[in-house]
What we know:
Order of helices and strands: EEHHEEHHHHEHHEEEH
Strand content: 5-15%
Number of strands: 8
Helix content: 40-55%
Oligomer: single chain
Structural class: alpha+beta
Amino acid sequence: xxxxxxxxxxxxxxxxxxxxxxxxxxxxxxxxxxxxxxxxxxxxxxxxxxxxxxxxxxxxxxxxxxxxxxxxxxxxxxxxxxxxxxxxxxxxxxxxxxxxxxxxxxxxxxxxxxxxxxxxxxxxxxxxxxxxxxxxxxxxxxxxxxxxxxxxxxxxxxxxxxxxxxxxxxxxxxxxxxxxxxxxxxxxxxxxxxxxxxxxxxxxxxxxxxxxxxxxxxxxxxxxxxxxxxxxxxxxxxxxxxx
Length: 243
């Protein structure tokens, strides 16, 4: 049963680990090393009336922990359930990143209606943002929202699909250190090249981050990929080869 502490809902970690027949200390150590994990301590009263300090994790961490367990190391009787969960989790992640939304097939009417309301609000925001955000980005977002509401996959003109400098650099298989050192300079040089080519600055676009925050980024599309490749080859590719 979840415990409410400091405004957060936590579930005791040890019983979950023992349920799967795993070593608690090893799982706790592994979890504490993960950047996505939220691990907190809380006080609970045992059957003997004594207060004990327990480790709890939130719902988000629980889902990630279950998705990353090795099915071959859990108790044999729990493997089928874990496989089923991980398969559904993989489907949900694929739908979220490639279709824009993941809908639980067991969602009730209230949850579905909430999703419809959210889609309607997002379409209204797209309308209100005309003239403020790159039109190609607005169209792409609107198509994704509409497809989500219809339970379909959004069909986007490839040349008009949003393209971010960070996404472009990730395709170059850079290390985290290389990304940190090159991203800022690369973004500035792409912006300068875009201005030289189009005689105007690239528009801004509010990008939704995985942590729930929003950050303003330069709005490029796949049509600008040759420009990014040009900047990469001129300023960065030789540096990568020398390294």
